């Protein structure tokens, strides 16, 4: 399997995919010499336009590893990954990454940059702003995205002075700058208090409504934070998929108990979820 960047396919990563398929993994595994077990083992998974997936599983289950494959940040050890119709290992992954929004709270953002500047950097996929690359249309788009995510008033505020909830929404606005077809969110609710979490849930639900073709994959630790827009779930344990498919087919007390290795009771509250462990 490929381990480095290869030639460009020539037709650009935004075209050439099977109708509606955004991401397809076939028999993928990831091995690391230093790991006791495989971070990921024999996984096949397809994400289509308009689907909103939640990746759930205990610590070390392989969620972040899977998200890194989906974002063309790493290559599989075996199997194939087709992203936006292009096979990893046969295209310039830098070009491919430009069509995937990746939101990771651990990603470095210069704290002195204003919220507007941080969103602008999404247009170039850079940490630092590349001022000569941002024309009027790009600047206006950054302003519109800030407004869409309720951060209009934060435009000139330094990113480092924004609350964690505000930062989370600014990061998503940044990731949407290149109009990606796939948005990956790695624990976007991490560190948020209850109102900030609910604001972000609202934003993600609005996003699903306003961009019906956008596919999203969200890594989460808590069922309570899943937006009602989540349509599909992949349950991982020890690097292996336990179940995957539509929320109504996959999510339940029995499947979650198997996934987390504890008896879990799952309650549906309207379009949201509440989970807790129960004494055997
Ligand atoms: N580069 C690496 N070298 C060795 N082991 C690794 C490497 N990357 C990940 N692993 C191992 O693979 C397993 C899966 O890691 P991963 O970060 O994908 O899990 P996760 O489900 O995201 O966990 P968490 O919920 O704690 O963030 C872990 O046991 C981890 O230690």
Automatic annotation (TrEMBL):
Keywords: ATP-binding, Nucleotide-binding. Pfam families: ABC_tran. SMART domains: AAA. The keyword Nucleotide-binding applies. GO terms for molecular function: ATP binding. Residues 23-263 form the ABC transporter domain. Residues 1-20 are annotated as: Disordered. PANTHER family: SKFA PEPTIDE EXPORT ATP-BINDING PROTEIN SKFE. This is ABC transporter ATP-binding protein. It comes from Streptomyces hiroshimensis. The lineage of its organism: Bacteria, Bacillati, Actinomycetota, Actinomycetes, Kitasatosporales.
């Amino acid at each position: 399997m490929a381990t480095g960047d290869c030639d460009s396919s020539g037709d650009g990563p935004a075209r050439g995919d099977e109708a509606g398929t955004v991401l397809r993994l076939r028999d993928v595994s990831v091995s690391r010499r230093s790991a006791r077990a495989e971070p990921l083992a024999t996984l096949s998974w397809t994400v289509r336009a308009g689907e909103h997936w939640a990746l759930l599983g205990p610590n070390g289950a392989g969620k972040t590893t899977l998200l890194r494959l989906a974002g063309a940040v790493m290559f599989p050890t075996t199997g194939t990954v087709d992203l936006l119709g292009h096979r990893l290992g046969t295209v310039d992954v830098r070009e491919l990454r430009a069509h995937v929004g990746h939101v990771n709270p651990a990603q470095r953002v210069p704290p002195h940059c204003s919220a507007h500047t941080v969103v602008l950097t999404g247009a170039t996929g850079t940490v630092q702003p590349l001022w000569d690359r941002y024309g009027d249309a790009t600047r206006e788009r950054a302003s519109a995205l800030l407004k869409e995510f309720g951060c209009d008033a934060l435009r000139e505020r330094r990113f480092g002075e924004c609350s964690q909830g505000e930062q989370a929404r600014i990061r998503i606005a940044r990731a949407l700058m290149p109009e990606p077809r796939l948005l990956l969110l790695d624990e976007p609710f991490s560190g948020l208090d209850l109102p900030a979490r609910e604001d972000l849930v609202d934003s993600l639900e609005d996003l699903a409504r306003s961009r019906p073709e956008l596919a999203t994959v969200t890594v989460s630790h808590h069922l309570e934070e899943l937006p009602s827009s989540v349509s599909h779930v992949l349950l991982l344990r020890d690097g292996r998929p336990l179940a995957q498919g539509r929320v109504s087919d996959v999510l339940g007390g029995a499947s979650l108990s198997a996934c987390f290795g504890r008896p879990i009771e799952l309650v549906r509250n309207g379009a949201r979820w509440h989970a807790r462990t129960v004494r055997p």
